[in-house]
Amino acid sequence: MLIDIHCHANLYLNLEKIIKEAKNVGVEKIISVGMSFTSLERILEISDKYDTIYPALGIHPEEVRMNKNIGNQLDLVVDIIKKNNAKICAIGEIGLDYHFVKEKELYPLQKDIFKIMLGLAQELNLPVNLHTNGAEKIVFDMLPSYNIPNVNIHWYSGPEQFLNLGIDRGYFFSVTPAISYSPAVKNTVLKIDKDFILLESDGPVKYSGKIGTPAMIRDVLNAISKLKKIDSKELEIQIENNTKLIFPKIF
């Protein structure tokens, strides 16, 4: 069984078709991660409608730029997450972004939101699904202050020193279809032990102009298999077991 642990399923206009295509290649479960305040209810709605979709709720670091009211909406965000604790499998997508978000005046709010999200993960005993672009050192410095059951770093392509630190700490790393062209993603895959690899589409983000979908993680698995010289079936079983460890609530 394949599991897409990081997808923005609420953004597809043809979700039924996307789910069908995924199932055709063996993708049985899809974690739909939150980004914006407005996305949270929609993610809960589609997870109720489709048994393939599992919700993870959180506020993406780019929301500080997209939504000028997010600071005033945080209490509502916290309420939604707490009320739906039984349904959600993780807090995500959360983190910091100093790469795409260039406005430094937004960084303090970004960090405040991240602290609130990490505090919720600790309180609710949920794993986190993290975005770290351009802010790897700060994210990695903050994490030890929280008692969180498990950490996944999504689409890591940052400095090697923090990749090594994440490996030493036992963090999981999810791999996207960018493995087909990104030297940084390939390097990440080569360095991580198979026990800490997960699969993700990050759909509907585009890869070389093609919209990402959960069905693509079959190709990601095969690419990892070739790169690490591990039989693809053996690797599929291993990654399924990895996913059970970090996201037990979806099983």
Question: In words, what does this structure look like?
Answer:
With 251 residues, the chain is an alpha/beta fold. It has a single domain (2-250), classed as Metal-dependent hydrolases (TIM Barrel), CATH 3.20.20. Helices cover 44% and strands 16% of the residues. It has ten helices and ten strands. The strands form three sheets. The protein has a five-stranded parallel beta sheet with strand order 4-5-6-7-8. Strands 1-2-3 form a three-stranded parallel beta sheet, sandwiched between helices. It has a two-stranded antiparallel ribbon with strand order 9-10. A hairpin with a 2-residue loop joins strand 9 (206-207) and strand 10. The longest helix has 18 residues, at 107-124. The chain starts with a strand and ends in a 5-residue tail after the last helix.
Task: Reconstruct the topology from this structure.
Elements: E1 2-7, H1 15-24, E2 27-33, H2 39-49, E3 53-56, H3 63-66, H4 70-83, E4 91-95, H5 107-124, E5 128-131, H6 136-142, E6 151-154, H7 160-169, E7 172-175, H8 183-191, E8 197-199, E9 206-207, E10 210-211, H9 217-228, H10 232-246
Parallel strand pairs: 1-2, 2-3, 4-5, 5-6, 6-7, 7-8
Antiparallel strand pairs: 9-10
Helix pairs in contact: 4-5
Can I get a quick summary?
It contains 10 helices and 10 strands.
Structurally, the number of domains stands at 1
The total strand number stands at 10
**CATH homologous superfamily?**
Metal-dependent hydrolases
Proportion of residues in β-strands: 15-25%
Distance between the termini: 12 Å
Radius of gyration: 17 Å
Spatial ordering of strands, largest sheet:
4-5-6-7-8
CATH architecture: Alpha-Beta Barrel
CATH topology call: TIM Barrel
Q: Tell me the name of the CATH class.
A: Alpha Beta
Sheet having the most strands: 5 strands, parallel
Taken from the alpha-carbon principal axes, the silhouette is globular
Global structural class: alpha/beta
Q: What are the segments in which pLDDT stays under 50 over at least 5 consecutive residues?
A: none
Order of helices and strands: EHEHEHHEHEHEHEHEEEHH
Total helices: the number is 10
Helical content class: 40-55%
* Average pLDDT metric: 97
